[in-house]
Write a structure and sequence with these properties.
537 residues; globular; FAD/NAD(P)-binding domain; Cholesterol Oxidase, domain 2; 2 domains; 8-stranded antiparallel sheet
């Protein structure tokens, strides 16, 4: 066993939270930070070219490619859970949509006792992270490391989508991250000059060579957190064939995501003592909430084949277009290769009496089936509809004491029947948009929804086809006077010292939107809280 060195902070996981907190803490040259990630550097063309996400999401390139346990609410189907592997985490493989969620989401966190997490409290951290090329004012930042801007695809289908929104009498929305976000429009993305801006590209890559106090180890798979009594003092990890240890003077910060953070804690003896005992793991601290409270957005995808030349797919006619697109991307960093696929979408209410939208749409410029894993000849498009605030709760647990084995992931989709009923309403609302003249004219063939009309037929189809839209959170939730809370509002793990969690697993409830920007916000706020504690000590 080799002890590699001692740092003030050891951050486990280079995803959106981990990159952000490591980048911010290492701004102080007097503070030493080590960042460990099991994957690679993620700084090549596959990551930086937006279009290449198709090479990652459907397979195991920079992707853990997890599966769920069989889902009772989905006819026993096994779901798919792609998660980013390597620096940037899921921000290196995602669709780059920049969304914060609704003001009410954060005010709800604060109302649960999480002081400092209301929308007004977190807005400064969203702004601090953001370098928005298009919007300013009270809701947007211009000087942050995370580049946010409008798409550079120049795809005329965007205008057809906006026309359809008007035909369906949906309101249009230009900025989804201001005071309100109900409506349909074109998404902003985390890109810079037509290239993906992952959390690593924003917070870590620019500093890897010039900050002597920042160490970044890739190919470093954490196997357990090291404790002395109730204090976290370091991390054991495997790099290549060697088992190593790295020590932390101040804190171990776990930022391995909604699945692997609870897994690492459980492997290290932090979790439900009885459940850990069944695996022969000695309990360091009994914390039953570790791995509980899993929440994710259940998602249904409408799919259509289309002859419109601006969609992507498998066709001989598409080869010349692809070659032209590659040439244009090399010259200008514009055009189809800058597409995040989910170029348009928005937030809608399934009932007019709702205070805030309860569904989100992602309109995709390609025909995708089963996360792109099933291929269809020809070109087409999709429209995702997801339920924003599901009532179902799932779990993440150990299937094995092997740290290289995947955890058991159970989102428990449709575990609460109310979620299914809201998805039926969401299906109908989305279909109203898809049957507008503008979008109807694009459709050559309806792939999954033809002949589906009654509520029972819709329910049956949803159970057959719903899966994740990639937003798992909540498995180490923040809370106060809550026996299932894992961290306090400063993100410190209850009952232990020198241990903090900084990723989407701390969210007590799932926010109504994409989760990358909120996780970066969590990293920003965590760094600020840690710096304040260091100044006070």
């Amino acid at each position: 066993m080799r002890v590699t060195d001692t740092y003030d902070f050891v951050v486990v996981g280079g995803g959106s939270g981990g990159c952000t907190v490591a980048g911010r803490l290492s701004e102080d040259p007097q503070t030493s930070v080590a960042l460990l990630d099991a994957g690679g550097r993620n700084d090549n063309w596959v990551v930086t070219t937006p279009f290449a996400l198709v090479l990652m999401v459907a397979g195991n390139v920079n992707n853990w490619a997890f599966n769920t346990v069989p889902q009772k609410g989905l006819n026993g189907r096994i779901g798919y859970q792609p998660r980013g592997k390597g620096l940037g985490g899921s921000s290196a493989i995602n669709a780059m949509v920049y969304i914060r969620g609704h003001r009410a989401d954060y005010d709800r966190w604060a109302s649960l006792g999480n002081t400092g997490w209301s929308f007004n409290d977190v807005l400064p951290y969203f702004k601090r992270s953001e370098n928005n090329a298009d919007f300013g004012g009270e809701y947007h930042g211009k000087d942050g490391p995370l580049s946010v801007n409008k798409l550079r695809t120049d795809n005329p289908v965007q205008q057809i989508f906006l026309q359809a929104a008007q035909e369906g009498q949906f309101r249009l929305r230009e900025d989804f991250n201001a005071d309100e976000h109900e409506g349909l429009g074109i998404y902003q993305v985390t890109q810079k000059n037509g290239e993906r801006c992952s959390a690593a590209r924003a917070y870590i890559h620019p500093h890897m060579e010039n900050r002597a106090n920042l160490r970044v180890d890739t190919g470093a798979h954490a196997t357990r957190i090291l404790f002395e009594g109730k204090r976290a003092v370091g991390v054991e990890y495997r790099q290549g064939k060697e088992l190593k240890q790295i020590r932390a003077r101040r804190e171990v910060i776990v930022a391995s995501g909604a699945f692997q953070t609870p897994q690492l804690l459980q492997l290290s003896g932090v979790g439900d003592g009885a459940a850990l005992g069944k695996h022969g793991i000695a309990s360091v601290h009994h914390l039953p909430g570790v791995g509980a409270n899993l929440q994710d957005h259940p998602d249904f995808v409408f799919g259509y084949m289309s002859d419109n030349p601006n969609f992507n797919g498998l066709s001989l006619k598409g080869i010349p277009r692809l070659l032209r697109a590659i040439g244009q991307y090399r010259r200008e960093r514009r055009g189809p290769m800058t597409s995040n696929f989910a170029e348009c979408g928005g937030f809608l209410k399934t009932r007019p009496d709702l205070d805030i939208p309860d569904i989100q749409l992602h309109f995709g410029m390609a025909m995708a089936d089963d996360h792109g894993r099933k291929r269809h000849r020809g070109t087409g498009f999709t429209c995702h509809v997801c339920l924003l605030r599901p009532k179902s709760r799932g779990t993440v647990s150990l299937g094995s004491v092997d740290p290289f084995a995947a955890p058991l992931i159970d989102p428990n989709f449709f575990g609460d029947e109310a979620d299914l009923e809201t998805m039926v309403a969401g299906f109908k609302t989305t279909r109203r948009l898809m049957e507008t003249p503008a979008l109807k004219a694009l459709q050559k063939k309806e792939m999954y929804t033809e002949g589906v009309h009654t509520d029972d037929e819709i329910r049956s189809l949803l159970r057959q086809r719903v899966d994740t839209v990639y937003h798992p959170v909540g498995t180490c939730k923040m809370g106060v006077n809550d026996p299932m809370a894992v961290v306090d509002p400063k993100l410190r793990v209850y009952g232990l010292e020198g241990l903090r969690v900084v990723d989407a697993s701390v969210m007590p409830t799932l926010i109504g939107g994409n989760t990358n920007a909120p996780t970066i916000m969590i990293g920003e706020k965590a760094a600020d809280m840690i710096k304040a504690e260091m100044r006070a000590s």
